[in-house]
Amino acid sequence: MRNAGWIVQVAAIGIVVGLAEGGDCAAAASSGEPNRLPRTPTLDNAFRAEWLRFGISSGRLVPTGARGINVSTRSEGAQPRERLSIRIGLADSTIHYELNETDQELLLDISGRHRLMFRRTPKGQAGFTAIQYEQPAQGPVVLRVGTGATQKVYQAPSLWHLLIEHREVCRQYLLPLLQLVYRQGDLEKTAAEIENALLVLARQGRAPDKERWARWVTQ
After folding, report:
1. Whole-prediction pTM value?
2. What CA–CA distance (Å, rounded) separates 124 from 180?
3. Computed from CA positions of residues 30, 144, 123, 99, in that sequence, does the dihedral angle turn out positive or negative?
4. Phi first, then psi: what are they for 82, rounded to 5°?
């Protein structure tokens, strides 16, 4: 397994490539918005039982749990109401999770190894913003914040690019959501380490090695 320092170096090279080819920095999101994360007991139990585990591969969030898992469960009675189905095969995975609470809904849908959609939708008078993170099998990842005419859309080649190029938006909206499923480490801390590595590369005047990055991300 690659160590954290190697991951930071590899991700930094990839982000340098992305920035060199036209990346931009987003304006900071407004502060002070309520961001209460829901209780997720069914999801928590799945992680404790090691049915679920997530990692980062080539800048994408991927399920890394034990192969051969085939589980379907739902909560009964009081809110939050949850429904979870997991099928992790040798070649691909299908994971579907729904949470319904008085003030919000969550939906996580994964098919294949890299295709993922994670959405948080407010209900009633909830004082927070709708969020949707989309990760296709190929192509850029997308973060949608808000709905309708006021919706903001942020796009980047990978999750790491998104966290660096749109740092404040991700810190306010995306990272709290991803904390529900990525429990092996601190994404914000790793992104900060990548940013520091970028600054070192910039000070040293080192050009990104695209061929080396392409080889590493396939390992």
Report:
1. 0.77
2. 23
3. negative
4. -130, 150
Structure tokens that stand for 179 in this block: 């904390």
Asked if residues 61 and 181 have their Cβ atoms less than 8 Å apart, the reply is yes
Q: Name residues of the chain where pLDDT drops below 50.
A: 1-10, 12-13, 16-32, 213-219
Residue 149 token pair: 């005419």
d(CA 163, CA 158): 9
What lies within 8 Å, CB to CB, of 69 at 6+ separation is 51, 86, 87, 88
Q: Residues 34, 127: contact at Cβ < 8 Å?
A: yes
Tell me how far apart the 2 most distant CA atoms of the chain are, in Å.
60
How big is the chain, counted in residues?
Answer: 219
Token duo for residue 14: 């990839």
Per the CB < 8 A criterion, the answer to whether 144 and 153 are in contact is: yes
1-51 pLDDT per residue, tens = 444 444 444 454 455 444 433 444 333 344 445 566 888 999 999 999 999
Cα 142–Cα 43–Cα 96 angle in degrees, nearest 5: 50
pLDDT at position 143 is 98
How many beta carbons lie within 10 A of that of residue 28, not counting itself?
12
Number of other CB atoms surrounding residue 133 within 10 Å: 24
Burial class of residue 188 in the structure, from the number of CB atoms within 10 Å of its CB (0-12 exposed, 13-18 middle, 19+ buried) = middle
**CA dist., res. 65 & res. 31, Å (int):** 36
